[in-house]
Design a protein that fits this description.
Elements (H helix, E strand, L loop, with lengths): L17 E7 L7 H19 L9 E7 L4 H13 L4 E4 L3 H14 L3 E3 L15 E3 L4 H14 L4 E6 L3 H14 L5 E6 L5 H10 L4 E5 L6 H9 L8 E3 L8 H7 L8 E3 L7 H14 L5 H20 L3 H5 L7 E3 L2 E3 L10 E2 L6 E6 L2 E10 L1
Amino acid sequence: MDSPPSPPGAGRTEGSSVKIGALVPLTRPGWVEAGRHLLAGLELAAHDVNGADGIVGRPLELVVRDTAADPRRAAAAVEELARLGVAAVAGEYHSVVARAAATSADALGVPFLCSSAVLDALTEHPTDRVARLAPAQSHGWRIYADFLLGAGHSAIAVAAEPSVYWASGARILRNHLAPRGGSVVELDMRALTPAAVCDELVDNRTTALLLLVGHPEPAVSIVKSVRRDPRLAGIMMGAPAGQPEFAEWATLLGDDSAAIPFLRYLPERLSTLGSRVETDLRERLAEAPSFVAFEGYDTVTVLAEMLRSCGADRASTATSWPHVAVEGTRGQITFSRTPGISVWQWTGTPIQVVDRDPAEPDRFRILHTG
C-alpha cells in the first residue's frame, strides 16, 4: 500500500518529493498494533518535517509497505522501493523481518534505518548502509536478566517458540545468568500445552517464567493458565519482548495483564520535544503512544536531518551515520560501532524494565533502569 504524502506545512515545500520507504507490519500474522504505533510515529515526523520546509524545500514523502511479519515480503518490498527511487528505507518491528530487509538494503546499496528490531545479527557481515535505533538484544536482555537477579529470581523458565529471535533471547539470558548462580530451563511450546507448562514450572521449582512466544497466542493462554493455578501463586511472569506495552494486552487479559515486567525504551522523563510529540501521537492514535511510536518518530527525524545535510544521494547518506547528532524524542541520537554488532548502533537508547500496576493496569511502573 502507498501512504498518501504527508501534508506539507503551509505551502513551504515545493518541487519533487524526497521519498523514504517505510516497512511496517500492518496485517496478521504481524503484530498489527505495534505496526500501527510505528506508522503513527513515522507519519507524524514526516508531517513535522514538511511543516519545517521539508528537505531543503522539497516535501518528504513516505512510501509505506506492509511486511505482515514476512521476511520474504520485506525483502521484496525493499527491492521495489529501491526501483521507485527512495533515498532510504525506514521502520520495521519484527527482528527476523528487519534482518531480511537489512540484508536486501545492504545488497542494493540503499540506506536502512531500523526503528524497532533488536536482533544482534541484523546483517551477516558488517555494513555501512544499515543503522539501528533500538538497543541490541544482547544489551537490553542482559539488563532484564540483572533485574531478575535483583528481584531474587535465579530459577528461570522460558516458554519458547522456535525462532531465531526467541532462541537468541534465551541464549543471552542463560549466558548472563549462569555465572551469577542463575539457571534457565527452556520449555518447548511446540510440545506443551499451557496446562503442561504449569506442571513443568512446579516440577522445576521455578520462581519466574518468561514468555518468549507470540502474541496474542499462545502468550495470553499461558498467562491465564498460570494465574489460575494455585500451585503457582508466587511465580513471577515476564515478557522481555514487550507484549504488555500495548493496549490489546490489557484488553485481552484484564487484571491478569498486570505485574508482568517487560522492556521499554523510554526515558524516565521526556524532553520538551518528547512531551510535545507524545501529545500529538496520543491524538493520532486515540490512546497513549507506546515506545514504538517514539521509535518511528525518531527514525524519520534522523533520516530527514541526514538528507538535508548530504542530499538524497544514497551513497552519501550511507557514509554519514558516524556524523549524525540529532535531538530525538528520547535524547540525542548518535551512531557508533559496537563490538559484535554489524550495523551502526545508537548506544544511548534509554532502557527500562516496567510493568502494569496491579492497582491500575493502565498505569506503568518503572521497576529497573539500565
